[in-house]
Write a structure and sequence with these properties.
Protein name: (rape) hypothetical protein
Radius of gyration: 22 Å
Largest sheet: 3 strands, antiparallel
Distance between the termini: 71 Å
Order of helices and strands: HHHHEEEHHHH
Shape: elongated
Domain DUF1985: 75-153
InterPro entries: DUF1985
Organism: Brassica napus (Rape)
Amino acid sequence: MGELCLPERMFAAGEEPNGERVNTYHKPKRIESIIEALDPDEVDFLRSTTFGKIISQAENPSFSGSFGQFVIVHMLRVKKKYEIWFLFAGRPIRMSLHEFAHVTELNCKKIPIKNTKKRKKNPINEKLYWGELFGSLKFCLVNLAIEMLKKRDQGPEMDEFLA
């Protein structure tokens, strides 16, 4: 039997991203800590936003982000819009976009066309809220933000965190 003639890969063999730099700041434990520090109504609000998938992945540890990354890294270029082909053990595997959405819980629906004639907001006129959230802190690490969330019900002063 002859060698398979496969479509071009999205990433050349041996040149795939190794995952060391792909979403390095995402740590499920930190998401869980943030969820624990928030009030239930705040978590419900976040679930209704684009951050909802991050929360559902943290609450559903059976989902493996590494599978989604594997599929994307080993993807083949194909002309069909609603199919994903990727290599697994050197063999091509077809997955419909619907199946990919079901397995990864990602929103793979058609992107709505926005009215491009809308006037964009001027970011200079919009209020910046870093100071409102973190006071005079120049930067805020995730661990500090989690501690601030946990202690907010106790009514701490911002100076306590600046020390």
